[in-house]
Amino acid sequence: MNAHKRKLLTIVTEAALEGTLVREIDRLGAHGYTITDARGKGEHGVRNAGWEASANIRVEVVCDAETAVALATHLREHYSENYAMILYLSDVEVLRPEKF
Amino acid sequence: MLDPVILFFVLGISAGLLRSELRLPAAVYELVTIVLLLAIGLKGGVELAKQPLGQLLPQMVGVVVLGFFLALIAFPILRKLGRLQRADAASIAAHYGSVSVGTYAVAVAYLGSRQVSFEEHMPLLLVLMEVPAILVGIILARGVTRSTNWGSVMHEVFLGKGIVLLLGGLLIGWAAGPEGVTPLEPLFVDLFKGVLALFLLEMGLITAAQLTGLRRYGLFLVGFGVAMPLFSAVVGTATAYVLGLSLGGTVILATLAASASYIAVPAAMRISVPEANPTLSLAAALGITFPFNVLLGIPIYHAMATLVHG
Predict the structure, then answer these.
(1) How far apart are CA B171 and CA B159, in angstroms?
(2) Domain spans of chain B?
(3) Which three-class secondary structure state does DSSP give residue B268?
(4) Quick one: which of B115, B118, B168, B220 has the fewest CB in 10 Å?
(5) Cα A19 to the chain's mean position, in Å?
(6) Long-range contacts, B158-163 (Cβ 8 Å, 24+)
């Protein structure tokens, strides 16, 4: 079994940003993404997902390192100032590299 | 005597302030909101089927102007007296120029339990009043010349959940007519008060959460959150008088003018004016103005309308 190295970019941000974020991810060349509802606490206080304005999402994108860095840089420059948003990159191994 | 649905709101606030574990699942809150919006839309639509739209034109124009006017008045007050940043002042002005469906529903329940009738086509005016202030808010924050992406702004404004469901309900009610809607009544009419009670329970919890945010922003917002709806209600009452609305209709229009949006506007502002701090506008709209209108405002607007019509 051959494993191939890719990057996992995880974005935790406001649910309000979902539509915009998905467009950016498509535009910057990632092949796909996974979104889950999330809640938690950070610099913007407790976001308990009780209703729309306090709902968070976690977006996961697996892609090559170049795309991941480009996407992360773009999101940090355009959104992290005005929105509750954290980003982190991790190394992952995938079995079907052609998908990513 | 307080309407029992109001007691559900009080229960929600109390539970929230006491840090109870109580919370409505987000999906339930969403469903309850959807049922309320559709019920209100349907009711208005059925009424529209009975009368020519042309006759309502003066009222439709009147409330759109009212929506623009209230947002334009609120902005300089927030900017000068409140010393708020431009984006924050514009966003809060948009919240207060627009309307709250929850407050409308409480006013309908209030009039219903007192057997005061009102013009049943009010949901049409409600939809029309949602939009103008959002546009004012965006323009005040960004200006018209700068690179605003109007396509996505319009998408956000007109295809938000609130407008789609209200307008959809109106159209379905209008197309189906009174008999067509009868089979839907068990859900949208008979259950209305129960659904409203659940909605207000959750609103109480949300309000309690906003109150903690309010502590950081001080007295001005509290004062604005009470004074602005009172002023808007006076303007709304005067508009209703000019438009020749009934006593009940006057109470409803004053309530609409006094209410501050927390569904359509926060969503639109978050996307179109991201630099505005949502904690500020929601603390004012939900932490102060919503409870004020629900607990004290509506009876005050009722007294105001009675004075004008007496």
Answers:
(1) 15
(2) 4-17+25-309
(3) helix
(4) B115
(5) 12
(6) B158/B131, B160/B263, B160/B264, B160/B267, B160/B268, B161/B33, B161/B34, B161/B37, B161/B263, B161/B264, B161/B267, B162/B37, B162/B101, B162/B130, B162/B263, B162/B264, B163/B127, B163/B130, B163/B131, B163/B264
Residue B93 identity (one-letter amino acid): A
The pLDDT profile of chain A, 100 residues, written as one tens digit per residue, is 688 999 999 999 999 999 889 999 999 989 999 999 999 998 877 887 778 888 899 999 999 999 999 999 999 999 999 999 999 999 999 999 888 8
Spell out which residues of chain A touch residue B23, defining contact as CB-CB under 8 Å: 48, 50
Which residue is it, tokens 């089927």?
Answer: B49
CA distance B253 to B250: 5
Q: Which residue type, as a one-letter code, is found at position B17?
A: L
Read off φ and ψ for residue B162, nearest 5 degrees: -60, -50
**Any A CB within 8 A of B263 CB:** yes
Distance in angstroms (rounded) separating the CA atoms of residues B98 and B126:
9
**What is the DSSP annotation of B90-123?**
HHHHHHHHS--HHHHHHHHHHHHHTT----TTHH
CA distance B211 to B13: 10
CATH topology of domain B4-17+25-309: Na+/H+ antiporter like fold (1.20.1530)
Looking at the DSSP assignment, which residues form a beta bridge with residue A59? Answer: A11, A35
User: Which of B259, B254, B252 is closest to B236 using CA atoms?
Assistant: B254
pLDDT digits (tens, 9 = 90+) for B164-215: 999 999 999 999 999 999 999 999 999 999 999 999 999 999 999 888 777 7
Report the relative pairing of strands A56-63 and A40-42 from DSSP bridges. Answer: unpaired
A50–B274 CB contact, under 8 Å: no
In this complex, which of A51, A82, A83 lies closest to B206 when CB atoms are compared? A51
Q: Which residue has the tokens 């323009």?
A: B139
